[in-house]
Specification:
This protein is α/β, with parallel strands linked by helices. It has 11 helices and 12 strands. The longest helix has 31 residues.
């Protein structure tokens, strides 16, 4: 008894005809007839009888039909489960906040170039929600701000210290400045991203320290929109220097004193047993993206 025989049998039950079943299955009529005959010979029972030019199930055939339905459903479930496992083993779910995503796209592109068979799924959110997603096994890697991961279940490695700069367009009065204080920036209309919670908090905290209030007149969920608003001159905004320098029409200006942002990569300690995730972590270490320890087994 083979799965294809059961599928052919099931279709004949539905169509009450070998000819129509063959048409529906896009195979030859003799192939369907042979499958039914082989099943009847294997069990020594008749599964169908002819009535008014239609095939109807015998008593034994009716019992067999119920069992076949259950068997084929189970076979489909197993196939779906194995497909999901295969997909999980050849893909990596990476979570990034919008600002960090813009910073790390070159890294992800380089990884894809070196490992084209591994599919990257990008998930978005703020740092807090992505930490929770990692804890709940909804993502495999989180690239987030700060250094306060749950060390009991997660491994964390510092990635880089990125400078946050104030950006304006080329016609802005500040465009020739090399350094600005936050009281100077506070005179401008600003645009910020709503769901970059940690990035935004870092900037607001510095404003608080400088005892001045930012004029955030624009709020968006899209980094692209933020850059377009800065480019148009209707607002200034804060970006990572690396991101700003990719935009030729923007002028990045350092703050006095400079403002930096800590970024780290998180993963579940037991996930290094997954070869695909281990490949990604080894790639990140090899390219100096995450710091030692070199032996990832130490993070388990």
């Amino acid at each position: 008894m083979k799965l294809h025989q059961l599928r052919y049998f099931q279709e004949v039950c539905r169509q009450h005809s070998i000819t129509k079943a063959a048409e529906e299955l896009h195979i030859s009529q003799p192939a369907v007839s042979a499958a039914i005959r082989e099943l009847e010979e294997e069990f020594g029972l008749r599964l169908f009888k002819r009535s008014h030019k239609k095939l109807i199930l015998t008593t034994e055939g009716s019992y067999f039909s119920l069992e076949v339905e259950e068997l084929l459903q189970k076979a489909k479930q197993i196939a779906d489960d194995m497909t999901r496992l295969q997909k999980k083993n050849t893909s990596i779910r990476v979570g990034l906040p919008p600002m960090i995503e813009a910073l790390e796209i070159p890294l992800l592109a380089l990884f894809h170039k070196d490992h084209p068979d591994i599919r990257l799924e990008l998930h978005h959110g703020n740092s807090l929600s992505l930490r929770k997603a990692l804890q709940d096994d909804r993502i495999d890697i989180a690239i987030v701000s700060g250094q306060d991961g749950d060390q009991d279940t997660m491994a964390a490695r510092a990635m880089k210290r990125s400078e946050i700069v104030y950006c304006v367009n080329q016609s802005h009065p500040y465009a020739r400045e090399k350094v600005l204080s936050l009281p100077q920036v506070a005179q401008d209309d600003l645009v910020e991203i709503e769901n970059s919670q940690k990035f935004r908090e870092t900037i607001l905290e510095r404003f608080h320290q400088e005892r001045c209030t930012p004029r955030i007149q624009w709020s968006t969920t899209q980094l692209y929109t933020k850059i377009q608003l800065i480019r148009s001159g209707v607002a200034g905004g804060f970006l990572y220097r690396t991101v700003a320098e990719r935009e030729p029409e923007l002028v990045p200006i350092s703050l006095n004193p400079p403002l930096y942002y800590e970024i780290e990569m998180l993963w579940q300690k037991n996930s290094v047993e997954n070869e695909t995730i281990r490949t990604f972590l080894e790639f990140a270490r090899k390219h100096g993206v995450i710091k030692e320890p070199e032996n990832l087994e130490q993070t388990k």
